[in-house]
Each structure stands twice: as C-alpha cells, then as structure tokens.
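Researcher: I'd like a structural prediction for the single chain below. Treat it as a standalone chain; there are no partners to consider.
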Amino acid sequence: MSDTNPQNKSSTDLAEIKRKVQEVLGDAPDLLKLALENMLREQDPNTEGHAGSAGRIGRQSGKISELTAMAKLKPGGADRLRRIFKLVNGNFNGAQKVSTLHDMRFVFFENDTRILFATTYDGDWDTYIEDFATKIPDLMDLLFSSVEGWPGITDPGVKDFIASHQITADGWYVANPNLSVVETRRLQKQNDALQEFLDKIA
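Model: Treating it as a single chain, here is the predicted structure.
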C-alpha cells in the first residue's frame, strides 16, 4: 500500500513537484502554486480510475465514462422542455431501462437559447448511444426534439450529430470508478437485506 503522507515524500520527489509546479504555474501567485504543490504531494499515483478514453469521444475513469454536450435550442425549446420537466417533476425513471446510466442533467444557458446535457455511464460511448436508441427511443426524442438539427435517435446519423456537439471534459473526478450501476444496485440490495436482518435480531 503506498504512503501518501506529504512528510514521507523524499526530497527528490518534492523537488520534482516544485519543478512541475513552476513549469505549469510559473507566472501564478504563490498561493496558487502552494495549493498545487500540496495537492501533488497528497496525490497517490497508484490510485485506480485515472482518466482515459471512453471510445469515440469523452473520458473514462475505471468503468465510468462521461458525456457532456452543448447545443442550440429551437425557438421556444427551453420553455417546452421546462414544461415537460415540470410535468414529470424532473424525474425520468424510464431512463432506468438503460442499466448503464448513472445520471443525466440538463441546464439551459445563454438566455434559454442553448442547452447543456451531461451524463455519466458505464462502458464505452458507442454502446451507450445504442442503448439510448434501443431502450428509451421515445424519451430521447421527447427530450432532444427541441434541439436544432436533432435527426431522431433512430436516424443513422445520430451518433455523428451527438459527437459533433460533445465536448470532452478537461478535468473529471469519479468517487467509485470501478462500481457499475448494476454492481451499485446489488450492493444496495445486499446492504438493505443485511440491515433488515439486523433489525429483526436486535
């Protein structure tokens, strides 16, 4: 097990950290440099889940991938989507049909002319988009038909459309990179069953 205590770093390691900080933040205030030095001292290079590629686009950390897309809305699109969100109380339980989906969120910006869609999921990009198309096609079209140029989730060009609006995250953190949605649900059920059992014998 590696030791991440800053006091146990060798003087060579500390000199290398200072060199890297100077290289990256040479013109920054000392407070900012010190903050980065402290962060690098505490960083464990053996930590699981370093970010890699999710496939076509996006980052992956362990089993978890990210998708962040921004697009222009059709006139009145934000208002229509807000009415839909209000109707369902912002809850899209139907999305559970995509068993790899961790979360998804929508944010309107630039005076309701653009939308940000962000999600995290298990596995690679192509499989995730195919899951959308086969498991929740109506929900996808309901949510994205207000986006300029949306071809429809079953259109052969939909992957190109999504990729053209996606931006790979420059920085990203995942607390449990090796726990898939299915594994998380299984652990929750096991914990619930254990707690119920302990309550009965208490």
